[in-house]
Design a protein that fits this description.
By secondary structure, the chain is an alpha+beta fold. Helix content is 38%, strand content 19%. It has one domain (10-76). It has helices spanning 9-24, 45-53, 72-76, and strands at 35-39, 58-62, 65-69.
């Protein structure tokens, strides 16, 4: 993603999440993603809600971002 200092990192992530899911989810590939590693933004309430809607149930915070995980069964469901 391109860096634009006038846009908050949270907003960039939230704007791209749907595209990420479209391109790596059940409608696009047989190797669906179960892990989402995010660098440069921390999981705010809005981010937690957005990833929960995609059924990511485990969240590991890191100093530079976070990793969200979901099961293979959840990832495979359209």
């Amino acid at each position: 993603m391109r860096f634009d200092p006038s846009i908050a990192p949270e907003d960039v992530f939230l704007a791209q999440l749907g595209t990420i899911d479209l391109h790596h989810g059940p409608y696009s590939t047989s190797n669906r993603y179960t892990e989402l590693e995010v660098v440069g933004v921390h999981p705010t309430a809005a981010i937690r809600e957005a990833i929960a809607q995609l059924e990511f149930t485990k969240l590991e915070e890191r100093s530079n971002g976070f990793i969200a995980r979901r099961t293979e069964t959840t990832a495979a469901a359209p």
